[in-house]
Amino acid sequence: MKTITIYTDGACSGNPGPGGWGAILRYRDTEKELSGGAAETTNNRMELTAVIEALRLLREPCIVELYSDSKYVIDALSKGWARGWKARGWVKSDKKPALNPDLWEQLLALTEVHQVRCHWVKGHAENEHNNRCDQMAVAESKKFR
């Protein structure tokens, strides 16, 4: 299987408000950037959308090294929280409804196809690819202001 490195970030002006997401896919010497946004959304929805859209580009099952500054995304995937929410009918362990079940359904389905290894990175720090994703996400969010 090919190993792909994916960096993602989401941004929102207000929560909810206009938002954007950015992603970078890297395979060997090839790099692809993608981004998008929404007029009325949340930061977490943009973080999830970035990962979903990046994974959707992959044409075959891959090993994915996923880098994100979103604890929400990284912890929910790596600690199995999202699978637990789904198993309980999108209810969290504290009995409150899990947010964004529509996006989690899509992401969990994609993690069935690909082997996703999650890595949390500090946002707005030294990681140049995370910083680039942030720039793209913010630029996309500005299109909806």
**What's the CATH architecture name?**
2-Layer Sandwich
Describe the largest sheet: 5 strands, mixed
Shape: globular
Q: Strands of the biggest beta sheet: in what spatial order? A: 3-2-1-4-5
Provide the structure class.
Answer: alpha/beta
- Mean pLDDT across every amino acid position: 96
Low-confidence stretches: none
Helix content: 25-40%
Query: How many domains is the backbone divided into?
Result: 1
Textual characterization of the structure:
It is a single chain. The protein is an alpha/beta fold. It has one domain (3-142): Nucleotidyltransferase, domain 5 (2-Layer Sandwich). Helix content is 39%, strand content 31%. It contains 5 helices and 5 strands, in the order E-E-E-H-E-H-H-H-E-H. It has a 5-stranded mixed β-sheet.
List the helices and strands and how they pair.
Layout: E1 3-12, E2 17-27, E3 30-41, H1 43-56, E4 63-68, H2 71-78, H3 81-87, H4 101-113, E5 115-120, H5 128-142
Parallel strand pairs: 1-4, 4-5
Antiparallel strand pairs: 1-2, 2-3
Helix pairs in contact: 1-4
Key descriptive features of the protein:
Nucleotidyltransferase, domain 5, globular, 5 strands
Summarize the structure in short.
By secondary structure, the chain is α/β, with parallel strands linked by helices. Helices cover about 40% and strands about 30% of the residues. It has a 5-stranded mixed sheet with strand order 3-2-1-4-5.
